[in-house]
Amino acid sequence: MKEKKALHRFAIALMFLYLFMPLIATFLYSIATDWHDTVLPKGLTLSWYVKLFQDVRFVAALGRTLFACSVAVGLNIAVIVVSLFIVSLYLPKLERFLQAFVMLPYAIPGVIGAVGLIKVYSSGPLAISGTVWLLIGAYFVVILPYTYQGTRNSMRTVDLPQLVSAAELLGASKPKAFFKVVLPNILPGVMVAALLSFSVLFGEFVLTNLLVGGYYETVQIYLMRRMRESGHLSSAVVISYYLFVFCLSWIALKLGQNFKNGNFDNLRGKKYELPHYR
Amino acid sequence: MSYLIIDKVTKKFDGTVVLNEISLAVERGELVTLLGPSGCGKSTLLRCIAGLNEVDGGRILLNDRDITYLAPRKRGVGMVFQSYALFPNMTVYENVAFGLKMQGLKGDRIAARVREMIDLVGLAGKEESYPRELSGGQQQRVALARSMIVEPDVLLLDEPFNALDAKIRKMLQMELKNIQKKSGMTMIFVTHDQEEALTISDRIFVINEGRVAQSGKPLEIYSQPASEFVARFIGNFNVLKGEEFERLVGEPLFSGKSLAIRPEIIKLSLNGENGKGHNGSWRIKGKVVGVFLKGNILRYRVRSKDSILDVDVLNNSMDCSLNYDTSVDLVIPKDEVKVLNL
């Protein structure tokens, strides 16, 4: 039995090593002074990271990426959660149409989508081609399938119409029922959907390059440019990107767990107590 | 004037009539049951009273107020759902306190009321548990406490004990009855379980195809079913066509009618035992074709001519001696044979 367990552990360790190998190699390259004809780097240095974070263009690109991704994900989540809430409660028959509609971005390749968007928005009353707003709009559409599916699955785990009915009969208005009962119960799933969408957008290159390119330099565009200059530096960008996404995931999961356990007051900084009870 | 009046309420779903001009009245402080088979419209009626389904016609008056088109939260109606509908993100305390918070009450007043209610439903010590940490019976108690704490004018209970096992179910039926008597709250209980309805109700409304088939006190409903549907649904009545019964007793009395005979009023004896039928009863011969143990009751299925009659007797050692194919006499009191409306 013990031997079997050891074998399982060894197999799992091997799999993780295989999966993380590219990341480990990238990390080593990002802290290597020189790594050409040896198994391991000749020397280690953090100078690439120092150089990276001292580069004003990188920090600005990171800020732009965060802005575009956050606005797109935030808007998208707000629209999808409210839409699904309304559809689930009042128009359940429309759900399959909504599902078909939000799945459309899967069917459209990035290049075609980008060309279409540039054509439509380069003239006319809404000439926003080459601006961040067109990028945000495109991001909004790209992540629809992820946010929709995640939110819908969360809503299905709770009997939403019944919970809203119960809250209403106890005196809550619809908005109160939504914020006090529905939202806390679907939040873990929504957080995961938001995080997944954020990660997808953070690594998205085709749309960004075609829609805004050098006009609005994001991390992806910056990475592309610096790759030509130095592999060490671009490795540092990639590792920073992964660390950033990892931190985001951790925060989102922690938040999700807290909401799931109902510790809302902890999040607001005050511990819930039973007043004068027992 | 009655406390709750349902006046010719109609409800259709996609053209199908679910409630067909149904009318009934409930008095203050009563526990009434809407009893009927699945799909008869009893839960729909409950949802119409709660405002969760809009009615297509008719009026609903509660405490002299027309609540037909009011929003659910403005009706003064509480509801306990079959699936409990507890808020999973809240503890027992928070679930029970939710309604009071929505009324704008503050800390101390909420705590005192919640304590009282939690004690009433026997959940002291479970205040900080989440619904997922409770058994089905405990969850149902939380649902009951949560609905009762806001002191609704009428509390609706939609098959609340359906998902519970028989023992817990029976215990909660008794507890609900006690709580209702203590609080004096008007309650409307929906069930398809006739035994449950007979146990807890002050009055029963038997619903069939969106209308009230019969209403009355449990004993009335049980002993004097008004129609074949009620007789078949409410108990284990022997329902016979008039001609069939005439063949059994040899008297032409009931042509064109349907008859209901309660299984427990038929006296059963071995051939030749216990005297004979007299003017007040019919005596017929038959053979035991089935024996079913129902705890304290033994149900014998007896074939007489072409008819089958069920006979319930108290389960004691003497009666257990009747086996398959035993020849028996059945004595049926004449005044216990009910003629049914078709």
UniProtKB/TrEMBL annotation, chain A:
Transmembrane: present as a keyword of the record?
yes
- Gene Ontology annotations of biological process type: transmembrane transport
User: Which residues span the membrane?
Assistant: 12-32, 65-91, 103-121, 127-148, 186-212, 232-253
Give an example GO cellular component term for this record. plasma membrane
Tell me the protein's name: ABC transporter permease subunit
State whether keyword Oxidoreductase applies. Answer: no
| Cell compartments where the protein resides | Cell inner membrane; Cell membrane
Task: Tell me where the signal peptide lies.
Answer: none
Tell me its family: Belongs to the binding-protein-dependent transport system permease family.
**Origin species:** Acetomicrobium hydrogeniformans
Membrane topology, as annotated: Multi-pass membrane protein
**Lineage of source species:** Bacteria, Thermotogati, Synergistota, Synergistia, Synergistales
TrEMBL record, chain B:
The Gene Ontology biological process annotation of the record reads: quaternary ammonium group transport
* One Pfam match: ABC_tran
Q: Which UniProt keywords apply?
A: ATP-binding, Nucleotide-binding, Transport
Recorded hits in SUPFAM superfamilies, A to Z, give: MOP-like, P-loop containing nucleoside triphosphate hydrolases
- Kindly list the GO molecular function terms attached to this UniProt entry: ATP binding; ATP hydrolysis activity
Q: In which domain of life is the source organism classified?
A: Bacteria
ABC transporter domain residues: 4-234
The answer to whether UniProt assigns keyword Transport to this entry is yes
Do the record's keywords include ATP-binding? yes
Q: PANTHER family given for it? A: SPERMIDINE/PUTRESCINE IMPORT ATP-BINDING PROTEIN POTA (PTHR42781), SPERMIDINE_PUTRESCINE IMPORT ATP-BINDING PROTEIN POTA (PTHR42781:SF4)
UniProt name for this protein = ABC transporter ATP-binding protein
